From TrEMBL:
It comes from Rhizopogon vinicolor AM-OR11-026. Belongs to the metallo-dependent hydrolases superfamily. Peptidase M19 family. SUPFAM superfamilies: Metallo-dependent hydrolases. Its cofactor is Zn(2+). GO terms for molecular function: metal ion binding; metallodipeptidase activity. This is Dipeptidase. Keywords: Dipeptidase, Hydrolase, Membrane, Metal-binding, Metalloprotease, Protease, Transmembrane, Transmembrane helix, Zinc. It comes from the Eukaryota. The chain crosses the membrane at residues 41-60. Residues 20-29 have a biased composition (Basic and acidic residues).
Length: 453
């Protein structure tokens, strides 16, 4: 053999095998480390290229980071912006009359009401989901009795309390029938929890103190049953307050709140029941704003300066809304009813946005919300035909320059602030030992003023 081959065959066979095995292990390790290093280089090079591309695109197109969601700002496209905003700040509507549809459409038979499919009017679960609804007040409304039925002193229509209890029952029944979609809520904390869980917060509201049967005691029992606002009037006067009528004002009876009405507001403050000023006369609204210790709401009212009907809130009353001296925190939740929005045939999404903008201008954008009145109205604005259309309204306001925070306030944040404020006032009053109001309507004939035993 030649000398150049000698080193390859030195040693015995076992040594030769051991050297080969050692060399193979080192080779495998080197190859594996090389592959890992190569993969890392490829990955980091790719990320670097993507970063450089993103930077270049961002420099060329300043809106790229907004549209991609990288900046935290809303996208430039109004429809996409509305969807993204509502994903984190869904609509909390101040007034929907769904229980009324169940009453007259199905005689309150909860088992037969198909909320998970297309309903005959404006509201059902699929459209609520499409409209990005995070919560709404279920109005447990029953209408005013006729003057002949109730009598001149509102004493005879006691069945309105019975009917209200039936509406509370049907609302709760529908909420519990669909537990994957609705969450029964009685506090601001409950509402936030429901929204976090992806459910539709469901709160109860009584639309008119004519449903109290002239009794503050009935108010307390409604609160125990989960009701969290009472509208001081509907289209009729009652023992507590004057109504605004409908499109034109009614002649006053009490010239605002009656003596019993002032006591009612005080008891609502003590309980944490929201004072709702929709449907009230201008004098009632002004007196309640000034007398209430807690923030108040208009659950479904628009701006009279935009469309002059008595159901809308005038600028003179809006001037009392705010955080300044002589003002009260409140939220005006804008109604979508065609006759309250514009002249016949002219109500559309732009007109609704005009109402919202006007209230935002006069009272401030922290004092406006949404209270559609869906399922309780026969004429809806073009572009806002049902609960699936809320995103279109948000897109319209976004185009008008409303910011992300302002829109989130409109969709529900402003209402939640007011609700939390009312809860705090109630807690403070109860901690201070404020006693319940036991005042009795002075026209009642079934209770003597005092009886000697």
């Amino acid at each position: 053999m030649s000398a150049e081959n000698d080193p390859l065959i030195q040693g015995n066979g076992s040594d030769l095998q051991r050297n080969y095995a050692h060399d193979d292990t080192e080779y495998d390790t080197t190859q594996r480390d090389s592959r890992v290093l190569r993969n890392r280089v490829i990955i980091w090079s790719g990320l670097a290229v993507l970063f450089i591309v993103a930077v270049v695109v961002a420099l060329v197109d300043s809106g790229f980071t907004r549209d991609s969601g990288l900046s935290g700002e809303l996208p430039r496209d109004p429809q996409l912006a509305a969807q993204r905003l509502l994903d984190v700040a869904p609509v909390i509507d101040g007034h929907i009359d769904l229980p009324l549809v169940a009453r007259f459409g199905w005689r309150n038979n909860v088992t037969e009401v198909p909320l998970d499919s297309k309903m005959p009017m404006h509201v059902d679960i699929p459209r609520l989901r499409e409209g990005k609804v995070g919560g709404f007040f279920w109005s447990v409304y029953v209408s005013c009795a006729s003057p002949e039925d109730e009598g001149p002193d509102f004493l005879k229509a006691s069945w309105r309390v019975r009917d209200t209890l039936e509406q509370i029952d049907v609302a709760k029944g529908l909420i519990s029938k669909y537990p994957d979609d609705f969450a029964y809520t009685i506090s601001s904390k409950d509402i936030k929890s429901a929204v976090r869980d992806g459910k539709i917060a469901s709160i109860l509201g009584v639309e008119g103190a004519h449903q109290l049967g002239n009794s503050i005691a009935v108010l307390r029992q409604y609160y125990e049953l989960g009701v969290r606002y009472v509208t001081l009037t509907h289209t009729c006067h009652n023992a507590f307050a004057d109504s605004c009528g409908f499109l034109t004002p009614s002649a006053p009876r009490h010239y605002g709140l009656s003596p019993l009405g002032f006591k009612l507001v005080e008891e609502m403050n003590r309980l944490g029941m929201l004072v709702d000023l929709s449907h009230t006369s201008d004098m009632t609204a002004t007196q309640a704003l000034l007398h209430s210790k807690a923030p108040v709401i208009w659950s479904h009212s628009s701006a009279r300066a935009i469309h002059d009907v008595s159901r809308n809130v005038p600028d003179e009353v809006l001037g009392f809304v705010g955080f300044g001296e002589g003002q009260r925190d409140a939220v005006v939740m804008v109604n979508f009813n065609g006759p309250f929005i514009a002249d016949d045939g002219e109500a559309d999404i732009e007109a609704v946005a005009d109402h919202i903008e006007h209230i935002g201008k006069v009272a401030g954008r922290k004092h406006v919300g949404i209270g559609s009145d869906y399922d309780g109205i026969s004429v809806t604005p073009k572009g806002l035909e049902d609960v699936s259309k809320y995103p279109a309204l948000i897109a319209e306001l976004y185009q008008r320059g409303w910011s992300k925070l302002e829109l989130a306030g409109l969709t529900g944040g402003n209402f939640l602030r007011v609700f939390e404020g009312a809860e705090k006032v109630a807690g403070d009053l109860q901690d201070a030992g404020t006693l319940p109001k036991y005042d009795i309507y002075d026209r009642r004939e079934d209770l003597p003023i005092r009886k000697e035993f």
